Amino acid sequence: MKLLISVSGIRGVVGGGLTPEEAAKFGAAFGAWTGGPITFGRDTRRTGEMLEMAATSGMLSVGASVIRLGVVPTPTVLCFVRWEKEVSGGVIVTASHNPIQWNGLKLVHREGRFLTRNEGEAVLKLYREGHPRASWEYVGEVADRQDAIDLHIGKVLSSKLIDPDSIRRRKFKVVLDAVDGAGSEAGVRFLKSLGCDVVELNCTPDGRFPRGPEPVAENLYKLEDLVKESGADVGFGLDPDADRLSLVSEEGKAVGGEYTLALAAKFTLGKRPGPLVVNLSTSRTAEDIAEEFGVPLHRVPVGEVNVLTEMLRLGSPVGGEGNGGVILPEVNYGRDSLVGMALVLQYMAESGKPISELVAELPKYFMLKARYKDPGLDGERAMEKVMAYFEGEEVDTRDGVRVTRDKAWVHVRPSNTEPLVRVIAEAEDEATAEGLVDEVIKIIAGK
């Protein structure tokens, strides 16, 4: 299995393309670029400690010191780097929602955000071309910090949008499914700090992943059952590094990550109007919410740093991605499941309404995700065929091809890592969405 190298870091199958040697080499490149000290965190994958030790050795070898946070959510590392001024960057050992055999290194800028393309290219240049190593007297040092989760929780609860006491008074019963990942401890601690009665599901942080790691509806059936059986007010489903959040209503129905962002955005804009920023693959519900509050909607290419960059440029109060990623710049410069949980619970507390009712108040669309895979696929040529077919229609080509037809759209993107094309369509009815997906796949396949 080939090692996947990009401006955001490296990832691959451990024992295949991803080895300790590569982790050390990449860690040294990032250490040389930042100068250190560097904050280090990881999710619960069993290969995480091995890769952390290897990457740490690389950083120390170029004179960069390391602050180890241990097993913590990805947003905790982002938050720590942003608010602890003595660090010059961060690294997270995680493969996010990828299968258990995968792992990787994600790179964090000293501002507490992921790297831009130009910044990532500078690190890759050092990785490929090499750099000086430190002599013995200038080798970096290692220190441990145990307070990163406390810092993160404190920052979320200090948001002016959150009134912890009003949530505590409601004494919500919450089921948390952390997929035995990095959100296991942090998520439980956070919810208990808000006075919630927490029912734990898959909250043993051993990294064995008892369900599919991505918190999509088909992987949350046990969470659905437990919410209903326990009489809980809401269910929260996380991915292994706890930057994505999916919701299950009190009726025991998974409502999905798209509604996480929609509810968080609706609540936030009701308090703090401003531009709403989402990516090109996020539900059209974002347009409806922006229109409701009379604010502009801005769409950007897929990628967390793309959303954040536009949010900071515009002074946007809230934004994110429809995969359950909520970004609240007041607190954190990345997707943050703790932020998502806080905003949803605050919305429930202030409105007095259950999740099912809050979701029912939003416009209804049907979204379908598919992919076309072919070993001989030419992604660039596929996009040319799609653009030619939809010529004259409302087309956005900043990230693949996105075609809008009234209240329906389809987004086609070639994968950067596999010989496949991803196709996402949304419409007011299932048949229209399926028709758009079929239409695009036929174009790509030349049928």
Outline of the structure:
The protein has 447 residues and is of the alpha/beta class. It has 15 helices and 20 strands. The protein is globular, with a radius of gyration of 22 Å.
Kindly give the count of domains. Answer: 3
CATH fold category name of the largest domain:
Alpha-D-Glucose-1,6-Bisphosphate, Chain A, domain 3
| Mean pLDDT reading | 95
Per DSSP, the total helix count is 15
Could you give the count of β-strands?
A: 20
CATH architecture of the largest domain: 3-Layer(aba) Sandwich
Binned strand content: 15-25%
Largest sheet, spatial ordering of strands:
1-2-6-5-3-4-7
- CATH homologous superfamily name of the largest domain? Alpha-D-Glucose-1,6-Bisphosphate, subunit A, domain 3
Low-pLDDT segments? none
The level of helicity is: 25-40%
Could you name the CATH class of the largest domain? Answer: Alpha Beta
Task: Walk me through what this model shows.
By secondary structure, this protein is α/β, with parallel strands linked by helices. 53% of the residues are buried. Helix 3 crosses helix 5 (148-157) and helix 14 crosses helix 15. It is globular. The mean pLDDT is 95. It has a 7-stranded mixed beta sheet, sandwiched between helices. Strands 16-20-19-18-17 form a 5-stranded antiparallel beta sheet, with helices on one face. A 4-stranded mixed beta sheet has the order 9-8-10-11, with helices on both faces. It has 15 helices and 20 strands.
Sum up the structure in keywords:
447 residues; alpha/beta; Alpha-D-Glucose-1,6-Bisphosphate, Chain A, domain 3; TATA-Binding Protein; 3 domains; five-stranded antiparallel beta sheet
